[in-house]
Amino acid sequence: MTAILPLLGGLLLGRFAAIRVAVGIQIALYAVAAASLILTAPDHGGSYTDGVLLSLVLAPLSALTFFLGRLWRKRAQRTQNA
Question: What are the residues whose beta carbons fall under 8 Å from the beta carbon of 10, sequence distance 6 or more?
Answer without folding.
Answer: 26, 29, 62, 63, 64, 65, 66, 68, 69
